[in-house]
Design brief:
The protein is mostly helical. It has a single domain, classed as Tetracycline Repressor, domain 2 (Orthogonal Bundle). The chain is 73% helix and 0% strand. The protein is elongated and about 55 Å long.
């Protein structure tokens, strides 16, 4: 195999795809190298281990959501309804175009009971998601009720992502976003 130039970000993007579709434990460093067009040893120039790739992949997705989706909740130039519509739209764009579902949801089920570092990063992501929804809902419902709604809808969204992937149809997933918008 010819050695190809790549970047740490390209390795993370390919790893994320593999972890979502194959699972974390079913994905090897050789699989990641193949997906990147590299020889296995080349990966070690960027990452010490598969666990390091796993943690960095989780952080990569978390940062994407913080920058592109969760941040919408804190914008002062939009009404709560505008925030929620944009929040749902951006979330939909991500998950409807993301084969394999939610990396953090998948790894929460697969590895968080065994890998505490993964578990903490995953919890940070879901807490940030809940906090963003709380921020949008608290003007209408108050902090405590907004928190209950946020927890419920993050859970519903994750379940709907799973069902969308299982049945290969977005219908039930899209209903969650519609319901979120109707609550504002």
């Amino acid at each position: 195999m010819a050695i190809k130039k790549t970047s740490k970000e390209e390795i993370l993007q390919e790893s994320i795809k593999l972890f979502k579709t194959k699972g974390y434990y079913n994905c090897s460093m050789a699989n990641i190298a193949d997906a990147c067009g590299l020889i296995k040893g080349s990966i070690y120039h960027y990452f010490k281990s598969k666990d390091e790739i796993g943690i960095e992949s989780l952080r990569y997705i978390h940062n994407y959501f913080v920058d592109n989706i969760f941040s919408i909740a804190y914008r002062t130039n939009l009404s709560d309804l505008e925030k929620m519509k944009l929040f749902v739209k951006k979330t939909d764009e991500y998950f409807l175009n993301s084969k394999g579902g939610c990396l953090l949801g998948n790894l929460a089920l697969e590895v968080s009971s065994e890998n505490l570092e993964f578990k903490e990063v995953i919890k940070e992501y879901f807490s940030a998601w809940e906090d963003a929804l709380i921020k949008i809902f608290e003007n209408k419902y108050g902090r405590n009720e907004a928190k209950n709604i946020a927890i419920e809808y993050v859970s519903l969204t994750q379940g709907a992502i799973m069902m969308m992937n299982l049945y290969e149809t977005p219908e039930s997933y899209l209903k969650v976003g519609e319901k979120l918008i109707s609550l504002i």
